[in-house]
């Protein structure tokens, strides 16, 4: 009995270990990209690590900014003044260090790139907090250096629509469906079950969602 239980634990551990999907939104997308690249670099150099990039099946990044050198002026125009932002980042020199779009082009990342999981970047075309070209440019750079990246743009969506307003609205959730399609790729039974799932229930009246969209600073 103990042997069977141990085998179940090992099997469960193996399944969980290799069905991990990394997701980040906005600043979370930026930070998780930094962490992912740093881990891949350590792994490629043979450093001691507590987890492997190979454990992550895909990385989903939503509405992120990946080149701080390009974004600092945009943030300044949006109200996050340059002096404040540079104070948070501890000076302009750190902007390059914490810009995944630039880091991945560094020669030190050459051997780490093959370790990276598939990267899918989601962005709304009406995102004024971080313009959609942040994801488009990042995807272009990633593919250029040999990583596997895809960008998905959602027409008319703002910085928060995809992960706040749309789920609250109920009905069909494009982002959720896209993620499920990636997670369940190759699993016909799971995909069939997804297709038969009932629409999500509305949680908030539409008038409140429209009002929130109008007054949201994002």
If you had to describe this structure to a student in words, what would you say it looks like?
- This protein folds into 2 domains: 139 residues, Alpha/Beta hydrolase fold, catalytic domain (Rossmann fold), CATH 3.40.50.1820; 59 residues, no CATH class.
- Helices cover 51% and strands 11% of the residues.
- The chain has a 4-stranded parallel sheet, with helices on both faces.
- The chain is flat and about 50 Å long.
Question: What can be said about this structure in brief?
Answer:
The chain has 218 residues and is of the alpha/beta class.
Helical run tally: 11
The portion of residues forming beta strands comes to 5-15%
Q: Write the CATH architecture name of the largest domain.
A: 3-Layer(aba) Sandwich
Oligomeric state: single chain
Shape: flat
Radius of gyration: 20 Å
Largest sheet: 4 strands, parallel
What pattern of helices and strands is seen along the backbone? HEHEHHHHEHEHHHH
Low-confidence stretches: 1-15
Query: What gap, in angstroms, lies between the N and C termini?
Result: 56 Å
The count of strands amounts to: 4
Mean pLDDT: 90
What is the domain total for the residues?
A: 2
The helix/strand class is alpha/beta
- The largest beta-sheet arranges its strands as 1-2-3-4
Helix content: 40-55%
CATH level-4 homologous superfamily of the largest domain: Alpha/Beta hydrolase fold, catalytic domain
CATH class of the largest domain: Alpha Beta
């Amino acid at each position: 009995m103990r042997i069977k239980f141990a085998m179940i634990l090992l099997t469960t551990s193996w399944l969980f270990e290799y069905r991990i999907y990394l997701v980040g939104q906005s600043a979370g997308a930026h930070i998780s990209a930094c962490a992912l690249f740093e881990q891949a670099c350590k792994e490629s150099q043979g450093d001691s690590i507590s987890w492997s990039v190979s454990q992550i099946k895909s990385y989903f990044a939503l509405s992120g900014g990946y080149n701080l050198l390009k974004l600092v002026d945009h943030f300044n125009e949006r109200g996050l003044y340059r002096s404040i932002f540079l104070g948070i980042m501890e000076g302009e020199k750190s902007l390059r260090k914490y810009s995944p779009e630039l880091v991945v082009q560094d020669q030190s990342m050459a051997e780490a790139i093959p370790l990276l999981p598939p990267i899918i970047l989601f962005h709304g075309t009406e995102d004024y907090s971080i313009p959609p070209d942040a994801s488009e440019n990042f995807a272009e750079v990633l593919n250029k250096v040999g990583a596997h990246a895809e960008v998905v743009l959602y027409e008319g969506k703002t910085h928060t629509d995809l992960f706040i307003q749309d789920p609250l609205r109920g009905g069909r959730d494009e982002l959720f469906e896209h993620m499920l399609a990636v997670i369940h790729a190759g699993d016909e039974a799971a995909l069939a079950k997804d297709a038969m799932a009932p629409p999500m229930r509305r949680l908030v009246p539409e008038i409140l969602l429209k009002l929130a969209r109008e007054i949201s600073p994002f």
